[in-house]
């Protein structure tokens, strides 16, 4: 092992290879648990180790396993958030073909307008929840948006089922308190 001129330990190529071999399956499984997409999970694993490689050159990582898991989880949740928005837009485009064969343009217009308002309200709430409490956002996204079983989400978040349910309750109450109008609009959907 070498030390660079600022006194930070750099583990080098062999150290990185050892860390990669030791944790690559765990990081892949973590990403796959969230998204159930093989190729996306592989990409997230590679992105996680790329960030680790870059990060380890400048700073010493105290708990490598925890750092890698946290980074993989954050990359995965960002992937989910970004792709959920694009999926919704794709679904809107597909619906145009269905609506094209139906009479009553006014009904179609108001239905699409209402759907757009619901999506914007949900996006507003999720963005605010993300800023308020990241763990609440993770729990709400996994349970309500991705419809993962609560037991599976609790295990993934390393907490008991009762703690997860309590967290979801607090998050829902915070949303209702701060975004009552948007929440009611979504709930009508």
From TrEMBL:
Domain spans labelled RNA polymerase sigma-70 region: 20-85
This protein's UniProt keywords: DNA-binding, Sigma factor, Transcription, Transcription regulation
Keyword Transcription regulation: yes
Family: Belongs to the sigma-70 factor family. ECF subfamily.
PANTHER family for the chain: RNA POLYMERASE ECF-TYPE SIGMA FACTO, RNA POLYMERASE SIGMA FACTOR HI_1459-RELATED
The protein, known as: Sigma-70 family RNA polymerase sigma factor
Organism for this UniProt entry: Faecalicatena fissicatena
